Amino acid sequence: MNHPLTSKLYLPLILMSILGFGIMFHPFTLNKNIGVNAYLTIVFGFLLAVLGLLAIRALLGKYPGESLIDWGNRLLGRAGWLGSGLVLAIVLVFTVLAVRRLTEPIGTSILFLTPEWANILSCVLVITYIAQLGEEALGRLCSICCGLIPVFGLNLLLGFGSVTLAQVHPAYIIRDLRYLNYWWAGLPGFVPVLLIASLIRTRDFRDRFRYVLPTVGLGALILGITAFEIVGVFGAGGIQRYPRPVMAFMGTIRLAQEYFFQNFVLTTHLFVFTAQSLVIATVLLRVLANGIIALCRIPRKRSRWVIPALAAVVYLLTLFSDLIVYARYNNPLIISGSFFILAYLGILWLLSRLRRDGRP
């Protein structure tokens, strides 16, 4: 059975979702000419996410026990069904992109002799199994994966030794602001938090809000340091050299030239990246299933088939890569989808303030 998550499981779920989706897609939302101040997009994204969380907190205070789907139906009527459906369609696209990002390094670095369809199928089956176990099991998995954060932190610490400090100068801020493309480009990294808060139940979200914000802040700090080090090591425009396994050799070659050590570093970071990608793909699938069940009012007996059905759709969309694609430095789909989710929450919050009874 699915019980509301406790804060001990809810907070790791939030943190791993931020790291998984943020590290996975933040480089793909930036202009390729961005310099050392790429972390500014993370700051702006964090501030926007805080606004979204405050709106969710207010909505839960006025309509306790309800979700994003219920708010849309209550405040927008039939238009709410359409708005919620668009949100879930965006989540489906994000899920497909997350699965593809998960299978790419596995297919190129580990199972490179395995057919693509089998590689994708194996990943989707694992994600489906974890999602079927329920939100409590997913929260426990995220708690375990939080043990990988010190490993990633060690990589960041080593990377600071290779940062060119001459590039860290206030004069570059004006230069880099021209290449921020969209100033909300860091928002996609925090969208999973908004989805989790509005579609996954937890106990006393309003009372635990003082713990949610520091958790989101910690995720923003790690993402910001990551974005800073990418260009700090590789130079202005270094976002173009952002490797798939997160900064695999950054700051490590200078410490040891041995082949074994370099392979150990690569394997470690590939494992961290795979774990984070697996978590965020499962979270998105679970969020999508919760939304579909609520939107279509699927009976409890039939709801167990929702996740397998969605997994089949995700598999087909991932297998035919021409249907949903992403490109480096040009992803209006990711940014516009994230902004729509935030804007939709803002509209619901505004309507809840204007209408006392909350009826359309």
From TrEMBL:
The keyword Membrane belongs to this UniProt entry's keyword annotation: yes
A GO cellular component annotation in the UniProt record: membrane
Key words, A-Z: Germination, Membrane, Transmembrane, Transmembrane helix, Transport
GO biological process, one term: spore germination
Primary localisation category: membrane
UniProt subcellular location: Membrane
Transmembrane spans: 9-26, 38-60, 81-100, 106-129, 141-162, 182-200, 212-239, 259-285, 305-327, 333-351
Annotated membrane topology: Multi-pass membrane protein
Family listed: Belongs to the amino acid-polyamine-organocation (APC) superfamily. Spore germination protein (SGP) (TC 2.A.3.9) family.
Protein known as: Spore germination protein
Organism of origin: Hydrogenispora ethanolica
